[in-house]
Amino acid sequence: MRLTGLSRRTITYAAKTGKLTARKLPGRTGAYLLDIDEVRKYAALHGSASGKAVSA
Fold this sequence. Notes:
The chain is built from two helices and two strands, in the order αββα. By secondary structure, the protein is α+β, with helices and mostly antiparallel strands.
């Protein structure tokens, strides 16, 4: 994703496994609601090879 440098799949996996705090909207395809600051911190620790988030 542009804001973090991580893929959507990586962020979704982190939410599913409890590495990120998230609320899931109802339904099989319900979106995850995440705190952007927490996602950015996660990206900084587990981010891209450059170690920097991609700007929006």
